[in-house]
Write a sequence for this structure.
């Protein structure tokens, strides 16, 4: 993964809001991922257009204390869970 | 209080046009007249969503055998659930699939019996294989992600390379290669299904190489042949932890196979609210967490990894569901499994498959 990589939600996965858990969630064939606020913001930006660099800048604007390293780690975790795929 | 469940396995019916000798459905299949009706399933889905369920697996038997399947899909999807259709593919037409997808099917899991038609149809007991090829084409054409599921056993394990190639040709996003779990008809047929150690040793590197080669294209999930292992397969994510099953007649089960545990008091959605059953029933609390465990599980480092293995298997092989899964090398009953392997993987006369009894 480089700052130019473009993450997107993988086909078949869907972002939703769970009223019961009062959290954003990702639904995919194997399971469910409950997202905290930062993760939800990152997933929201995994739209197949924004690069890792873009996402890091946008998040730094919206959330104080979010480091580029945190964003990279989060996307890596989402990739490992098979929820996000990377182009480039 | 227990955490909320994420998944509901809705076994809509036990009726099925196939007669797979490895089927995990119980020997005593629920009859059509005992099935929950449309309104009762709607209520199950409503209650499940309110309880926290976000994923609904519509399975069976063959879910396409329910005429109200489109309404059931629409109801579950309308609640915001991810809807997974688990099917043999028989009865799936272009028209039906388009309708189901427009009502909210998110994902299709299609079972395949073997790499070639003759072998597959022998295991299924009917001509099914060609329908599956068509069904896979329909699913990929409409653009819904496809998982192919293959149950592995002595009669198809040698064809694992061919099965992987078939799933690739079918356009699967995922392939589950699941060694047979011995419940229901599969237990009945165990002596005809147990693979040999040599077969597994030959298949393992083929699967591992394909996992490497196809990374990023087709994910391959391999479920171990537990009788041959030193550690059991985990009991889901723990008993009563993440998922519940509702059987065709409304029985609410912590695990799809749990009807085999003869002394488990099973509740029914016809009599009790789903939330009460999930949180307070004897059946769901019986093996929740780790407090119920005995030695050797009680003091074992793996107790949060495999939860002591399968309760249903412990009951079937030791007559007490609270025992350590006898597959475990630390279990005092491991000898039972070794005897079964010795006797059943190399029978003197190859036993015939007892085909799942068709519904009548
Ligand atoms: C019982 S079937 C019902 C749905 C549908 N009739 C089908 O076969 O896909 C549900 C899933 O369990 C798998 N299955 C059936 N018997 C099994 C067994 N003994 N061990 C492991 N998986 C099994 C099937 O391949 C299928 O993916
Ligand atoms: S495993 Fe075979 S017999 Fe059992 S429900 Fe599925 S298709 Fe029918
Ligand atoms: S003793 Fe129990 S917890 Fe430990 S590995 Fe065996 S089954 Fe798992």
């Amino acid at each position: 993964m480089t700052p130019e990589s473009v993450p997107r939600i993988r086909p078949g996965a869907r972002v939703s809001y769970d009223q019961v858990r009062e959290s954003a969630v990702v639904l995919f064939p194997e399971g469910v991922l409950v997202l905290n606020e930062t993760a939800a913001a990152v997933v929201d930006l995994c739209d197949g257009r924004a690069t890792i660099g873009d996402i890091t800048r946008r998040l730094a604007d919206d959330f104080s204390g979010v480091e580029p390293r945190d964003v990279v780690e989060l996307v890596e975790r989402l990739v490992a869970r098979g929820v996000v795929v990377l182009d480039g | 209080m227990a955490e909320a469940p994420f998944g509901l396995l809705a076994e809509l019916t036990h009726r099925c046009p196939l007669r797979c000798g490895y089927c995990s459905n119980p020997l005593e299949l629920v009859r059509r007249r005992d099935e929950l009706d449309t309104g009762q399933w709607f209520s199950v889905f409503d209650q499940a969503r309110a309880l926290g369920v976000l994923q609904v697996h519509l399975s069976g038997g063959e879910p396409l055998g329910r005429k109200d399947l489109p309404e059931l899909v629409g109801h579950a999807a309308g609640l915001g659930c991810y809807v997974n259709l688990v099917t043999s593919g028989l009865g799936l037409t272009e028209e039906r699939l388009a309708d189901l997808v427009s009502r909210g099917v998110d994902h299709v899991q299609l079972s395949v019996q073997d790499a070639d038609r003759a072998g597959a149809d022998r295991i299924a007991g009917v001509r099914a294989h060609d329908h599956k090829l068509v069904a896979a084409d329909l699913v990929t054409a409409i653009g819904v992600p496809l998982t192919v599921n293959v149950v592995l056993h002595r009669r198809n394990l040698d064809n694992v390379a061919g099965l992987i190639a078939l799933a690739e040709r079918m356009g699967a996003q995922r392939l589950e290669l699941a060694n047979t779990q011995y419940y229901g008809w599969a237990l009945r047929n165990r002596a005809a299904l147990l693979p040999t150690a040599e077969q597994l040793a030959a298949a393992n590197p083929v699967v591992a190489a394909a996992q490497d080669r196809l990374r990023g294209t087709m994910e391959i999930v391999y479920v171990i042949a537990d009788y041959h292992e030193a550690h059991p397969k985990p009991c889901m994510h723990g008993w009563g932890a993440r998922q519940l099953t509702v059987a065709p007649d409304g029985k609410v089960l912590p695990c799809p196979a749990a009807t085999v545990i003869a002394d488990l008091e099973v509740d029914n959605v016809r009599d009790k609210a789903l939330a009460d059953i999930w949180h307070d029933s004897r059946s769901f609390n019986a093996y929740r967490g780790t407090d119920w465990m005995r030695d050797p599980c009680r003091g074992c480092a793996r107790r949060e990894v495999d939860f002591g293995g399968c309760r249903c298997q412990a009951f079937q092989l030791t007559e007490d569901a609270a025992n350590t899964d006898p597959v475990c090398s630390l279990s005092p009953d491991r000898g039972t499994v070794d005897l079964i392997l010795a006797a059943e993987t190399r029978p003197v006369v190859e036993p015939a498959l007892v085909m799942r009894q068709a519904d009548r």
